Amino acid sequence: MLFVSAKVSQLALLPQGHAERKERVEKMVAQMDSEGFGACTNTKACEAECPKGISVTNIARMNREYFTAVMTSYEVVVGGGE
User: Fold this and answer.
1) What pLDDT is recorded for position 46?
2) CA distances, 26 to each of 35, 47, 49, 81, 82 (Å)
3) Whole-angstrom Cα distance, residue 25 to residue 5?
4) 55 with 4: CB under 8 angstroms?
5) How far, CA to CA in Å, does 74 sit from each of 42, 60, 64, 68, 69?
6) Residues 25, 26, 30, 31, Cα dihedral to 10°
7) Cα angle for residues 64, 66, 67 (degrees, 5° grid)
8) Which pLDDT value is given to residue 17?
9) The pLDDT of residue 2
10) Which long-range contacts (CB under 8 A, 24 or more apart) does 23-27 make?
């Protein structure tokens, strides 16, 4: 989760990354889940052992990006849905 969150954070912070940010974070989290990566335990063990020094603050940023994407990308169905 630490590496995925670092990539989501990096791309979300770039001005060029804003156009696809919602779709990208949804797809990256879905892929991470489908491959069986676990969720963050908030013990910061991954941060301490990470050879690249990636901070767990990226996980918080990824969670914000994901929450925003999910909450703003729903379809509105008008009528009976039949």
Assistant:
1) 85
2) 14, 23, 27, 25, 28
3) 9
4) no
5) 29, 22, 17, 11, 9
6) -40
7) 65
8) 77
9) 87
10) 23/69, 23/73, 25/62, 25/65, 25/66, 25/69, 26/66, 26/69, 26/70, 26/73
How many Å apart are CA 56 and CA 15, to the nearest integer?
22
pLDDT of residue 76: 53
pLDDT at 50: 86
| CA pair distance 23, 37, nearest whole angstrom | 20
Backbone phi and psi for residue 73, each to the nearest 5 degrees, phi listed first: -120, 50
- Helix H, strand E, coil C: the string for the chain is CHHHHHHHHHHHHCHHHCCCHHHHHHHHHHHHHHCCCCCCCCCCHHHHHCCCCCCCHHHHHHHHHHHHHHHHCCCCCCCCCC
Q: Which segments in the chain show pLDDT lower than 50?
A: none
